[in-house]
């Protein structure tokens, strides 16, 4: 089963993403901060990482850059998960080696799942 | 929650709360921000010590029944106060808690003899900006928050005599003349920070300058720099190229660079991008030494 690691500190956002992904047939993992997210990515090798850009220990961009630079995690696609304005989100995602971004909050589950599927397909 | 009128908002010294409690309050106030910048307790503790936040003079707002409404912190340095980490819980906004907190901090500053206060507000945070204007702050200028991703290949170092400086030598540079800086970039910040070092560069044409920075586990941050001789953009290209050549895997975050900083073209040339902008605001007469 395709596994998606959700790195998100706000429990409600994480739970909403988890429910949507589970409904879409994915297995999920959850890390509430960058340190645990890095460890889970290295140890559990998810198929995709959904990464909040605002985390309490290190922010999402820093973690994305580190994941890209680490040979253990460099090949795992990362999708930024953010409420930032579209242009800033796009620029940050591209600059930090993310496959793209998904805007928060999740409004339509089907759109969210379609984006996740498209990011996995381009892997 | 029944919200009290502004006059009944209770202000409690932040020192009466644990760091964990303050972290929780702060994060709750920011949960709906466009740029939420959450913190964990360790990060908030580091913030407090690095930026000289004075918890006994910082404030938590609460209802008369003790339900928490928000938080605001006061930094205290020689002849200067700084207002930071202001936040009000989303469901309790527009009932005067923000006004009470900032007014309270200004009174706290006055109590310790400070009538000059500084702050930065995220550009387009109109409610906070308006609040500060009403409380007597004036705009000084725009500040940039910049980032450089480690996914950008390290630049070839500009040909220059580049000397790495240990903490003591790096901090010794901070006493030299620099323009007055936003709070986060003032010399005291670097004196308080851990893992500080520096670079001094001299180019073939005699241009020279220096950079002092903090190296954290995953990031380079808290830059202070100056050009001693020559074109600031050229000198900055030299010290930044050597820095990123030395630390190719580290993310870089640089806060509160003034939009008219003559070193700025070098940051863009080295792959930095703008993350967001803040507005710097002052209240009262700046001390003469500034």
Any overview of this molecule?
The complex is a heterodimer of chains A (123) and B (290). With 123 residues, chain A is α/β, with parallel strands linked by helices. Chain A contains 5 helices and 5 strands. Chain A has one domain: Response regulator (Rossmann fold, 3-Layer(aba) Sandwich). In chain A, helix 2 (34-44) runs parallel beside helix 3. The mean pLDDT of chain A is 93. Chain B is of the alpha+beta class and 290 residues long. Chain B has helices spanning 19-30, 41-50, 97-111, 126-134, 167-173, 187-192, 232-246, 264-269; strands spanning 10-13, 59-62, 68-77, 80-88, 117-122, 138-148, 160-165, 196-203, 208-215, 219-229, 251-258, 273-283. Classes of the chains: A alpha/beta (123), B alpha+beta (290). The A-B interface holds A 9-10, 33, 54-59, 61-63, 65-66, 68-69, 83-85, 88, 91-92, 95-97 and B 27, 31, 34-40, 42-43, 147, 149-152, 217-219, 249, 251, 253, 273, 275-276.
Characterize the biggest β-sheet of chain B.
12 strands, mixed
Order of strands in the sheet with the most strands of chain B?
Answer: 1-2-3-4-5-12-6-11-10-9-8-7
Going by CATH, the architecture of the largest domain in chain B would be 3-Layer(aba) Sandwich
Largest interface: A-B, 25 and 25 residues
Number of strands of chain B: 12
CATH class of the largest domain in chain B: Alpha Beta
Class from helix and strand fractions of chain B = alpha+beta
Total number of distinct structural domains of chain B: 2
């Amino acid at each position: 089963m395709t596994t998606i690691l959700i790195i998100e500190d706000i429990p409600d956002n994480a739970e909403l993403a988890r429910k949507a992904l589970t409904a879409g047939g994915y297995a999920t993992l959850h890390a509430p901060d960058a340190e645990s997210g890095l460890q889970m990515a290295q140890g559990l090798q998810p198929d995709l990482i959904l990464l909040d850009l605002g985390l309490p220990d290190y922010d999402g961009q820093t973690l994305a850059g580190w994941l890209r630079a680490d040979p253990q995690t460099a090949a795992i696609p990362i999708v930024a998960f953010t409420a930032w304005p579209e242009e800033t989100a796009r620029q940050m995602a591209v600059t930090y080696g993310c496959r793209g971004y998904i805007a928060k909050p999740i409004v339509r589950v089907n759109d969210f799942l379609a984006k996740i599927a498209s990011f996995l397909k381009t892997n | 929650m029944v919200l009290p009128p502004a006059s009944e908002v209770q202000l409690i010294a932040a020192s009466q709360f644990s760091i964990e409690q303050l972290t929780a309050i702060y994060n709750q106030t920011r949960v709906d921000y466009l740029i939420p910048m959450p913190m964990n307790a360790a990060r908030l503790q580091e913030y407090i010590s690095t930026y000289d936040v004075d918890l006994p003079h910082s404030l938590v707002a609460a209802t008369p029944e003790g339900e928490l409404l928000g938080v605001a912190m006061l930094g205290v340095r020689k002849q200067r106060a700084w207002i930071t980490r202001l936040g009000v819980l989303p469901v309790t906004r527009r009932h005067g808690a923000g006004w009470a907190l900032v007014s309270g901090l200004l009174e706290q500053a006055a109590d310790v003899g400070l009538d000059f206060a500084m702050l930065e507000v995220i550009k387009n945070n109109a409610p906070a900006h308006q609040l500060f204007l009403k409380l007597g702050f004036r705009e000084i200028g725009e500040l940039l928050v910049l980032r450089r991703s480690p996914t950008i290949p390290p630049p070839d170092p500009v040909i220059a005599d580049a000397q790495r400086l240990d903490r003591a030598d790096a901090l010794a540079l901070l006493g030299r003349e620099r323009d007055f800086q936003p709070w986060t970039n003032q010399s005291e910040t670097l004196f308080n920070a851990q893992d500080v070092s520096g670079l001094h560069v001299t180019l073939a044409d005699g241009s020279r300058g220096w950079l002092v920075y903090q190296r954290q586990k995953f990031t380079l941050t808290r830059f202070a720099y100056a050009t001693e001789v020559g074109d600031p953009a050229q000198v900055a290209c030299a010290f930044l190229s050597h820095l990123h050549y030395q630390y190719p895997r580290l993310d870089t975050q640089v806060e509160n660079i003034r939009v008219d900083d003559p070193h700025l073209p070098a940051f863009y040339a080295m792959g930095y991008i703008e993350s967001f902008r803040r507005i710097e605001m002052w209240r009262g007469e700046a001390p003469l030494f500034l």
